[in-house]
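User: Short transient receptor potential channel 4-associated protein isoform X2, Mesocricetus auratus:
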Amino acid sequence: MAAAPAAAGAGASRGRQSAATAAAWGGWGGRPRPGNILLQLRQGQLTGRGLVRAVQFTETFLTERDKLSKWSGIPQLLLKLHATSHLHSDFIECQNILKEISPLLSMEAMAFVTEDRKLTQEATYPNTYIFDLFGGVDLLVEILMRPTISIRGQKLKISDEMSKDCLSILYNTCVCTEGVTKRLAEKNDFVIFLFTLMTSKKTFLQTATLIEDILGVKKEMIRLDEVPNLSSLVSNFDQQQLANFCRILAVTISEMDTGNDDKHTLLAKNAQQKKSLSLGPSAAEINQAALLSIPGFVERLCKLATRKVSESTGTASFLQELEEWYTWLDNALVLDALMRVASEESEHNQGASEESALPHASARTQLPQSMKIMHEIMYKLEVLYVLCVLLMGRQRNQVHRMIAEFKLIPGLNNLFDKLIWRKHSASALVLHGHNQNCDCSPDITLKIQFLRLLQSFSDHHENKYLLLNNQELNELSAISLKANIPEVEAVLNTDRSLVCDGKRGLLTRLLQVMKKEPAESSFRFWQARAVESFLRGTTSYADQMFLLKRGLLEHILYCIVDSECKSRDVLQSYFDLLGELMKFNVDAFKRFNKYINTDAKFQVFLKQINSSLVDSNMLVRCVTLSLDRFENQVDMKVAEVLSECRLLAYISQVPTQMSFLFRLINIIHVQTLTQENVSCLNTSLVILMLARRKERLPLYLRLLQRMEHSKKYPGFLLNNFHNLLRFWQQHYLHKDKDSTCLENSSCISFSYWKETVSILLNPDRQSPSALVSYIEEPYMDIDRDFTEE
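Assistant: Predicted structure for Short transient receptor potential channel 4-associated protein isoform X2:
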């Protein structure tokens, strides 16, 4: 550390001024120039040279400047803090100085967070800015990390109270001063060290919140396997600490999002996957594996997720935590919401007592239950998110097995009415600056996270039948028996001791609230996705009938046709769900025709389909596949549906199929393909595969060529399709999961998919089924590099 410069006016015998200090004086007639000092400090902070800390000035110098600059004495306090925090200090005086600094920063940070900027605007240089500029942040990092230093074989120790003060000051500075959090994130050894401070209950909450903020801006994801004694640390957390720790885990186990839309294209994803194969597992995957290796980790998460409010933390310890939250600004917003609820409940009870002449309950007796509900909602949010991410990771089957074993699904089923989908009260808890319909509201976020978990749990996994109860499983068996078809093997293999209990399973409860959801509700998208995931995979007639008997098809058609839904996301999710519900199911098409019983209704339905094929193409695919199967069946019931159903009649027309085919190919390009719109390519392939079965592939290609010419763009569409099919080969022939999904959902063998693509890409211009045969030589452009813009 550089020696403190001599005070102004001192003789040569007292030593010479440093060049940096002389520059700070700036020749302003001997008067202080605080702007220059701050500029020098800022430059020093950026370069690491020159003025960087308060200790480089004398106290006299700083006091003189403070009179003009109103720095609240912070630089002088930092000077004293440095002097009392050396290695051989007992830290008592050091802690007293921290107690002086803390309120100077905390009030400013509280005003900053609650958007009361008046306090911060009165000062030219906010206290947190001055604290950081004079080296306060770096000094606190050094003080906190003193326990990592050994003197004569003994580790230095500082009290939990002192650590707590340091953490609070650091956090307040991060809140108010731009760039501090990023600088802390660059100190990897400090970030790892912070985890060790979570062993103490006294410093846990402050440490966890600071870590969460730091990891949120850290460019490279931290590796949990580098945290000393991670397994012991996590195993020793109580349930309350573990729930809060999940906020940190949410950042460490999710793949980092670059924020660049191009990275979401399949081209970019494929390139990233190739890169990842050479680099090995990502940090997120390593962190997921590290957590799953901790004994009892998933079991404890399941217990937290399914814990009832009455089983949660006692009022006394909860209020103690809230008291800490009050000084911990990240959670002050939650406290703000709770206090508002207390006030509303008090007013409500007061009004009731005036009417009934009975004494009203005080806010003190009412507040804890509201607090407990909010507490549990906030905890479950984080826990469900972590479980959801683990369910989508590399160890998916292992996580699935554990989640089933620890009865997460029946536990959530028991919480559904009272907590997860509880009715909003007049005093519904919301965060500061939001309303109860805002997507940031804890109530709403919990519901969405719950629906995302159900979607991940059900998607292409036989454990999806745990969403039913015993009676509902028996109903599935009865449906199969009545239809004279084999029972689904996964139903037979379901462990009945792990399914939902009560009168209704979780899937049935979800259907009930789905049908009651208001037209403008943001939940409709997630509800439809969760139910659709139950139907995904190999088509099950029994699963479809189970949902059809509960009026799902009529509800979907009401939303699409009668309410004329405008949301593209909701429409896409409803079309996808309708396709899975109707695919190959004669009864579903009969129900469709019964509901869409007028030409006017059918035209509204077609208008919704044609308004965006990216959204509706999965339904078009399912109806096309169903039509093909029905046409090859000899059955009176099927024949009746074929003759009466408007939708099947419409899809059966070649001009209709060609119109869909032309538009599906035209709205996508290799450079813009994403996981969302690649379905358009596969739907176009389904139409052509079915044409190939009927030996009509050349006809369809010739019609596409004519449509090109009629649009005055010869070669444009077929060149594009050729490039798309080349990409299809690269993408699907190396991805087992995707190819299996294509096969299961279409009931067309993947070998037939591959053969059809190869036939279409045949370079022989004499082949009647090759695309090149229909592209005239002057317009040929089939060898373009995929990466070319």
